[in-house]
Specification:
This protein is of the alpha+beta class and about 280 residues long. It has helices spanning about 10-25, 30-90, 105-110, 180; strands spanning about 160-165, 170-175, 185-190, 205-210, 220-225, 230-235, 240-250, 255-260, 270-275. The protein folds into 2 domains: about 35-175, no CATH class; about 185-275, Immunoglobulin-like (Sandwich), CATH 2.60.40.1120. It is rod-shaped, with a radius of gyration of 43 Å. About 25% of the residues are buried.
Length: about 280
């Protein structure tokens, strides 16, 4: 009895050939040529990206450089102002009894010979009350006296502090002249407890002003008193808060006060006011 089959049966040799074709790997997809083509395309793309970023970075830097320089200039001017304030103070700050607003000159009685004297005592000065300027951070040594380009300020002991880091000179002037800071004067009046001027007793009355001598110590100057009670210290005093003593040498009666000497203070524009002796009448 024969049974018919609905599909044809391939000979064995044909089936082997078919299996051989199906199991053969597609080696042409991984050929060296193909790999090189893919790798070459990726490298070119990376190079194009790098070049593009470099160009964009260059353009951006060129565009922002003027703003960076302006920012450095503003920061440097602020730093110069801080140094100037450390040297000779800021007269808009502080009251009559505050000496901190007269800086190094107000305490020492002279201009510093270098900016380092603003941060360290230049030689055991007893009147030195610094540091007058501080670095922002402990590790930023001398940052306070360096411009935003990393160049130290130039200062030779006068009234001008200079920055040159930008390639151009930026100056800050603490006063018009040294005389404005170191050669001040003032006037005042002495009266007795009864409000009367010394008159014929004026020879017995003296006025004494104390101030730093510029070398780390204090000194005093004495001025005579007129019959109308007027006394003058015409010049030679540094800016700052200066202590004033008036005294009757016969009665030993005395009075104390302070006078605030600004730059260019003279007997014409600075008056210590009227001082009264507590108990002596004239």
């Amino acid at each position: 009895m024969h049974t018919s089959v609905g599909r044809s049966i391939l000979p064995i040799n044909h089936m082997c050939l078919l299996n051989s074709k199906m199991s053969k790997p597609e080696s042409h997809l991984l050929s060296p040529k193909r790999i090189n083509q893919q790798s070459g395309f990726s490298l070119i793309g990376v190079l194009i990206l790098i070049i593009t970023l470099a160009v964009l970075t260059s353009v951006a830097l060129e565009a922002i450089t003027p703003y960076l320089e302006e920012s450095r200039r503003i920061e440097t001017e602020a730093a110069l102002h801080a140094v100037g304030r450390a040297v000779a103070g800021d007269y808009a700050l502080g009251g009559m009894m505050s000496g901190a607003d007269f800086g190094y000159v107000g305490d020492v009685g002279a201009l510093p010979t270098s900016l380092s004297s603003l941060q360290t005592n230049p030689g055991g000065y007893t009147t030195w009350n610094g540091p007058y300027i501080h670095d922002d951070f402990l590790e930023a040594t001398n940052k306070a006296v360096t411009d935003s380009w990393g160049t130290s300020f130039n200062y030779t002991g006068g009234v001008t502090v200079t920055s040159s880091g930008s390639g151009n000179t930026i100056n800050y002037t603490v006063a018009k002249t040294t005389t404005d800071l170191l050669n001040c004067g003032f006037t005042g009046i002495i009266k007795g407890a009864n409000g009367v001027t010394p008159g014929i007793s004026s020879g017995n009355v003296i006025s004494v002003v104390s101030y730093p001598n510029g070398a780390g110590a204090m000194k005093s100057d004495t001025a005579s008193v007129s019959s109308s009670g007027v006394f003058n210290f015409s010049a030679g005093l540094p800016i700052g808060i200066r202590s004033l003593l008036v005294k009757d040498t016969i009665t030993s009666d005395s009075a104390n006060s302070f006078v605030r000497l600004l730059p260019r203070s003279t007997i014409a524009n600075t008056n210590a006011g009227t001082l009264r002796l507590p108990t002596t009448n004239y």
